[in-house]
Amino acid sequence: MFQKFSASFALFFLFSLFACKAEAEKVVNKTAERNAIIDSTITVFQKQLLKSQIDSVFTKTNFNGSVSVHQNGKILYEKINGFENFKNKKPLDSNSVFAIASLSKQFTAVLILLQEENGKLKTDDFVSKYLKEFEPKQFEKITIKELLNHTSGIRDFDDGLHSKPGEEFNYSNKGFYNLGKIIEIVSGKSYDENLNELFKKVGMNHSFTANNFDGKHFASAYLGTAKNFSEVPNMPERLSARAISVPAGGILSTLNNLHRWNNALYTGKIINQASLKKFLEQSAEREHAILGKMGYGFGIMTNFAQPTAYFHTGYVKGSASLSIYYPESGTSVVILSNIADESRGKSAVFISHKRIKEITESLENATVSVKETLKKTAL
């Protein structure tokens, strides 16, 4: 499918170039006009292709959820389908608030980096400097950085270590729970207070923690199918319990608020460039059960291959999410859903998310390639 997509892009763009050349000649080959024509042509094609390809994913997988693609703040694609509440058949809309699960981890990582910018801690500090439970010998040399990139070795469901600190990647919600405690200690404020200040700074007016949700427009989480479903109980309150915890997986948000976050974060409007470099650095490697091998920074995943992409998956019972940012084109992709048929396995739960990531990555590669070629070749 994607080979065909690349070929169709090339053919389409070849035709477009002739049109662009003719127009550019009319304006005496002025660079600004030429670039405007090129950008406009690319945007039209991006919109057409995304609609065709992602609409097909909705149809083939009966996807219940919301998908949105923005580029430099402008909508390239958006489709919302299904129910916010399956019991009363209330439809999803742009105000629907989803549990975003482990997408929450990047917010915690940013809060840590903000504390570092304020001189309250260093990411190379030993966690034992702040938390007594890390004072025993096997834990005393674990650093904040190792909690952030899941190389601390700590176990989620019992005491002891999977591996020596700094040696292996072992995904840990407990690590991010402890990062939340460190944030509270060094800031003198609750995690929720810190996060609410961050939301306000970014303009995320419809984002919450599991502790402070206002109860409006919640996309309740369900297991099963649209015809045979059961509601996940005690949502979203259950996300604040120790087994998950707000710093690891208890944030709630909307499509547009997550686009706001992506655009502000990756353009340096939240943390400074030195902090952003730390956040994105591939300081660990992960073998993701669904998306394969990837780099891991501070609560964020990164592609090894092209295109350059920063992303994270999230899953709590019934709610699967994926957020992606392509820095070369300024493209933000948000995929949120609120029903999952766990009987088919985790791969099936994320099949729509994975296919949409493949579509947007193919489009990103093609777009970047064409723009690079045009920079080198005058019309």
What's the helix and strand layout?
Blueprint: H1 2-26, H2 31-61, E1 65-71, E2 74-81, E3 83-85, E4 90-91, E5 98-99, H3 104-117, H4 144-148, H5 173-187, H6 191-202, E6 208-209, E7 222-224, E8 229-231, H7 246-249, E9 251-253, H8 255-266, H9 273-280, E10 284-288, E11 292-296, E12 301-302, E13 310-316, E14 319-326, E15 331-337, E16 339-340, H10 346-349, H11 351-376
Parallel strand pairs: 7-16
Antiparallel strand pairs: 1-2, 1-15, 3-4, 5-9, 6-9, 7-8, 10-11, 11-12, 12-13, 13-14, 14-15
Helix pairs in contact: 1-2, 1-11, 2-11, 3-5
Written overview of the protein:
This protein has 379 residues and is α+β, with helices and mostly antiparallel strands. Helix content is 41%, strand content 18%. It has eleven helices and 16 strands. The strands form four sheets. It has an eight-stranded antiparallel β-sheet, with helices on both faces. A three-stranded antiparallel β-sheet has the order 5-9-6. Helix 1 runs antiparallel to helix 2 and helix 3 packs parallel to helix 5 (173-187). The longest helix is centred in the N-terminal third of the chain and has 31 residues, at 31-61. The protein starts with a helix and ends with a helix. The relative contact order is 0.15. The mean pLDDT is 91.
